[in-house]
Design goal:
201 residues; mainly alpha; two-stranded antiparallel sheet; 48% helix
């Protein structure tokens, strides 16, 4: 575990960062995008190495692909969007139990958490599911996005944070997990900010 193989989430973060720096057309990014597309699971998701689990991986890869120039209407993107929408909980949030690393029956399933709901929203928003206020007529956000945003808003504490007793950070899959206390703050703020940005465009 000290010398991890490549993972979709880390590769995606590097791709998104390089694209932000104007290197979306570079050979490095093109090769990484091909790797990401080949790493997509049969169900449309991506494995998450450093966060639990496929919700994290999928929420990381979608923004990277779009930033690198993959169109939102491409089949790989549509399959990932469908996977996220199908895994949304009845309460509007998303969650994935840590048991998903050992038991495929738990992939994309678990109690809703702030960080995991935010990861799903970040992926959906990158894929264009946030709508566009500047369109004619204005394109509304998808129902999944609206329900996810509502979950975050409804579950925010008076002090501005979110409760999240679940461990959503991954040390080594199947061995130990971490409760990163800023996950419950940083990722929801990022998701809500991206939602507002999509609406303003």
């Amino acid at each position: 575990a000290v010398i991890d193989p490549p993972s979709a989430d880390v590769t995606a973060h590097v791709v998104e960062a390089l694209a932000q720096e104007g290197r979306a057309d570079s050979e490095v990014v093109r090769r990484a995008v091909v790797w990401l597309l080949k790493a997509q699971e049969a169900d449309g998701s991506w494995f998450g190495r450093w966060g639990a689990n496929h919700v994290y991986g999928t929420g990381a890869v979608l923004p990277a692909l779009i930033a690198a120039g993959v169109r939102p209407d491409k089949p790989a993107v549509r399959r990932a969007v469908a996977w996220l929408e199908q895994r949304q909980n009845d309460d509007g949030g998303w969650g994935e139990d840590l048991r998903s690393y050992d038991d495929p029956g738990w992939v994309g399933r678990g109690a809703s958490t702030a960080s995991q709901t935010a990861w799903a929203l970040i992926g959906l928003l990158a894929a264009g599911e946030g709508g566009a206020a500047g369109a004619a007529p204005p394109a509304p956000p998808s129902g999944a996005v609206e329900r996810g945003v509502a979950w975050l808003v409804d579950h925010q504490r008076q002090d501005g944070t979110w409760d999240e007793p679940q461990f959503t950070g991954t040390g080594f899959p199947g061995d130990f997990y971490i409760n990163y206390h800023l996950y419950r703050l940083v990722f929801p703020i990022s998701a809500l900010g991206r939602y507002l940005g999509a609406r303003s465009r």
